[in-house]
Amino acid sequence: IASLLTRLEYRYDKSNQNVFQLGDRATSYQPTLTLDVVYFF
After folding, report:
1. For 40, what's the count of Cα atoms within 13 Å in the CB-facing half-sphere?
2. Chunked in runs of 10, what are the mean pLDDT values of the chain (41 residues)?
3. Distances in Å between the alpha carbon of 18 and those of 12, 13, 14, 29?
4. Which residues contact 16 (CB under 8 A, 6 or more apart)?
5. Which residue segment(s) compose the domain that 14 sits in?
6. Is the CB of residue 15 less than 8 Å from the CB of residue 22?
7. Which of 1, 5, 14, 26 could form a disulfide with 38 if both were Cys (CB 3.0 to 4.6 A apart)?
């Protein structure tokens, strides 16, 4: 479909402090996987 844009994005955020939540504990990193779908009209 010409008016549909899909994008897969992976991010890995890192900090020198434990600022991210992983389950029930704090951690210094956070991986994120996102699927974006945009429809143009």
Report:
1. 6
2. 93 98 96 96 90
3. 14, 12, 9, 8
4. 28
5. 4-39
6. no
7. 5
Which tokens in the block code for residue 3?
A: 């008016």
Number of independent structural domains in the chain = 1
CA angle 16, 22, 27 (to 5 degrees): 15
CB 14 within 8 A of CB 22: no
pTM of the predicted structure, to 2 decimals: 0.65
Measured CA to CA, the distance from residue 5 to residue 27 in angstroms comes to 34
β-bridge mates for residue 41, sequence order: none
